[in-house]
Structures
1.
Amino acid sequence: MTSDQVVETFGSATEENQIDPLRDQQIVTLPAEGEVWIAGDMHDHRRNFDKLLKAADLPNNPQRHLILQELIHGEHFDETGAEESWQTLLRAAELKADYSGQVHFLLANHDLAQIQGKGIMKGSISVCEAFNKGVKKAFGSSGGMVQVAITEFLLSFPLGIRLPNGIFCCHSIPQDDQVPTFDFSVFNRPLIGADYMRKTGPVYQLIWGRHVTPDGVKQFADQVGANIFVTGHQPQEMGYGVNGDQHLIIASDHNQGVVLQLNLAESYEVPALVRRLKKFVAMDV
């Protein structure tokens, strides 16, 4: 694809995110029928992404919804240190443009780091700089306008997705000491620059939160009207982790990674959610 085609694709997907009829401000609410498949952090794991799209088969399953998060910043580096996860992000944008009502995203901390151009290192490498280098390698002098389109696409991601059965999906949950002062209005209004500020902004606190306790989860759940949270963000060696009776953490960025497959018309407790997890390694597609 040319740079103009890439910019157009990201622009179309951005608009679809913004005008999604299921979206109200920063929350997407899924209907009370059909299915949803929820992926954890993907981090450019292309084999798992391929399996996910083939198994989900969205064209032949119009009532199936797909939730994606943290697609960028993986392990595909070239000999110069350029990282190429923009390609997987582009595939996701194409998917949104083609199946706008079925494909949904969650804003994640790596997305915000890429938007801001800083904040995450792997060893001695800035993943944001490596990502930018990959875009420049692919598009040369047109790389700048591609990066702008990518930034606008990432900024169009909602903060949360509400399921009709009381499950709330977001990338993470603020740490315990931030919950009492958290600005919950962030879900119900347009976002401003201060919302993204390191440590103090509610968007930052939401998507960077780690090590929240079950008590913190309960406090947060009470405020957003949720029974159970499904999040990513925290690495899970076996693909998932259970944090009390209201919080399931999933990951999709390695061979033991999982996808959570749910019926939107059914209610679940956390043990039942665990039984609905599907490992990518077990997908025969």
Note: Residues 1-13+41-159 form one domain.
2.
Amino acid sequence: MRKAFINLSSLLIVVLIISPVMLDAQDLSLPTPMTSGGKPLMDALSERQSSRSFSDRELSLQQLSDLLWAAWGINRPADGKRTAPSSNNRQEMDVYVTLKSGLYLYDANVNMLKQIHDRDIRALTGTQEFPATAPVNLVYVADLTKRGLKEGQTITDADLLSSWANTGFMAQNVYLYCASAGLSTVIRAMVPRQDLAAAMMLKPMQVIILAQTIGYGVK
């Protein structure tokens, strides 16, 4: 009986030790982004284009890491500044990533995709057919509390002006990365924002700006 009790106690200790890891087991740690190389800027600009035809081939974690760093990564670690401009350095933008395996929030500080849930909501990121099967859809979300708004306050067009501009910078970074890496992309304003916000479990002061689809093109 004493031996059985010791074995049970040992099992409980092991469970307690590993359970914090298990709770975050669906988060995706990304490899260090490759921040050098690629095509020369003028070549990438020459090849930058929108595409609405995507295969279902998934991107690697390295590609996701490079893509997200290009969009909104930290390029000046000393002061936490980003690869895209941010009005008054408010950094109110968040990049959500919808994959077949679920919905994630990009955390540039730890270079990780933090899982929000494990439901495939790619189809909700656009009104066209291709977002549902393309491997990656980014959703650019403005957290207006970081711009000083309070919950319950009316959101005006002026409140969103900077966020629209900041999203444009981020999306263009993705375009240039895709042109350099041989991937296809398109930025999209046709987004069912109310349904998507509910599926993403966003708060009232979190506003969807645009979505962007990324993947391999169909040859």
Note: The helical segments are 2-23, 41-47, 61-72, 157-181, 193-200.
3.
Amino acid sequence: MLAILSIILVEGPASSSLAQSQILRPSVRIAYVRSGNIWLLAELSGRRTRLTSDGHDDGPHWIAGGHALLFQRGAGGGGETWRWQPGIAIKRLRDGLWSPDGTAVAITRIARGAGSPTTVWIARQGRMIRIAPIQPHFHWAPLAWSPDGRRLALGRIGIPPPTRPGQEIPPAPGSLWVTTGVLGSGRLQRLPLPASYPGHAGWQDLFAIAR
């Protein structure tokens, strides 16, 4: 089974002749998963290169402008975060959501308190900075980086406590927040979400920052 998951335009144009004309187009490098291993495909030359062979890898995505590839390793995919770069041995990184430039990682941690709340930290250049407060019965998820790695968007989901033992309580409506100013300054701004349907707040299943 083959699944194409991440595509990057490689810097520098490459030529390709069609019939009696010659055109210029960028080279395309495709990262994909086959049988639990990460492969690369050079679109112009058709050359395929297998990067891993353990059979438990998934989720490749390019960072640092296409100069490095991150992927997840673990039984069934997911778990550990690993990095591949041309000419450098594959190595494991700190787990979390890495910024597009590869210089920082956002980490979600479970904190002490009612309802097992979570908080979010940023690791960059050897420093750990907490950017989300610890609030009982609230989880921060999902997360998304801006393309330049300067801002982080955070979903905030309320998990109300059960009123009786064993009762299943659905999550309360969520809210969307984004860092402002210098990343790590601790300032968050709430953003409006469109209503899911009349009378009900929106839900932040997935989002992305354009700038």
Note: The CA atoms of residues 41 and 65 lie 17 Å apart.
